[in-house]
Amino acid sequence: MKTILSAGLILLFTCSGLRVKAVQPVQEPAGNGLKALIDSARKEKSDSLRLEINSVFFDKLTAGLRESPASDKMFDSLGIGIITSPDAKITLVNWNLQQNNGTNIYFLIIRNNITNRVIPMKPMPALQEISEDSIFRDGNWPGGLYYRIICRKELTGSFYTLLGWDGFSRTTSRKTIDALSFDQDGFPVFGASIFRTKDGLKNRVVSEYASQASFTQSYDRQKITLSNVRKSQRKINDDIIVLDRLVPMNESLTGQRWAYVPAGNIYDGYIIFDRFWTFVEDIAPRNPAPTGKEKKPRKPVSYDLFPPQ
Predict the structure, then answer these.
(1) Overall number of domains in the chain
(2) Is residue 257 part of a domain?
(3) pLDDT average, residue stretch 230-238
(4) Residue range of the domain that includes 201
(5) Is residue 29 part of a domain?
(6) For the whole model, what pTM was predicted?
(7) DSSP of the chain, one letter per residue?
(8) pLDDT by residue (tens digit) across 194-210?
(9) Does 228 map to a domain?
């Protein structure tokens, strides 16, 4: 028997004749190739080269999401944000690249898990201002890293509520509460007038604060009592959005957002009320007792609903 190796083929001679067997090259798992790209982009010291490498990663990841569900383990090692809505209908895949000047560029891919449609969004540098009145569409979006998707059917219209973070600069960071919906063609729309704030209805809520501060923006179950509504509407036992109260370090710095920090043990919130996310001041958030160690609940404190109904 004689074996001949040539151009990746093994030719095997047998008594029954000539048999040709192609030797397939060893395929690197897709996830490994993606991880090598994003790791290389993050280590690159040149802004332009970093973005070039990330562009290849973005395209390959988009293609990978079209072939595999976002929950596939091949994406677990990439070190990027992958969050799925509570109803399992959409997944947001997002990450950032920090530039040498300390600012960030954000990347987002949205996957419709029902239709398997994958929508790559435009790369978005951190905006100088995230307007609370703007609507983003046609591939545009506010930028940032989304870390929570809230699905509440009680809202006016069909919206997902997004909690996000934006490391705007070396001196200030921002957290947002935004609304995500889809137009008649299935393309994403960011922003909706479902937030009832001190200043009226807004399309999103933006909190800007000192980058070195630790600012709470969470979604937790709380018990509160409203004081200026009908008796049947006063008791609230629901998941709400909890926010630190932000204040300037001293009065002379009022309006300078780099100087705003949490007041400490003073929290505000947004509750679902009358089909809107509605602002409530001075709440007393507390985590529920662990299962099996239920404690007698404290008497709920009465809070004013803002603005008055």
Answers:
(1) 1
(2) yes
(3) 77
(4) 80-303
(5) no
(6) 0.81
(7) --EEEETTEEEEEETTEEEEEE-PPPPPPHHHHHHHHHHHHHH---HHHHHHHHHHHHHHHHHHHHHS-TT-GGGGGG--EEEE-TTSSEEEEEEEEE-TTS-EEEEEEEEETTTTEEEEPPPEEPPS---SS--B-TT----SEEEEEEE-TTSSSS-EEEEEEE--SSSEEEEEEEEEEE-TTS-EEE--S-EEETTEEES-EEEEEETTS---EEEEEEEEEESSS-GGG-EEEEEEEEEEEEEESSGGGTT-GGGEEEEEEEEEEEEEETTEEEEEEEE---PPPPTT---PPPPPPEE-BSS--
(8) 999 999 999 999 999 99
(9) yes
